[in-house]
Amino acid sequence: MKTTLKNQYAFTNQILIAVVSAVFGYNLYQAIVHPENSNLILSIILVAMTYMVTEKYGTGKSKDN
Known about the structure:
Shape: elongated
Number of strands: 0
Radius of gyration: 17 Å
């Protein structure tokens, strides 16, 4: 019987990336059009945190020996 392992965090990572992209895009728009209403620094921090989480739980190379 052949079994394959799927990354259990793959779907969650995709949703997280989509939400963070939407928030960052909206705040980038606000920074361009209405600079007084933007939270660009918070969005950049959120993008950095998302990068770290996807690197930790992402679909990387598995160590098979």
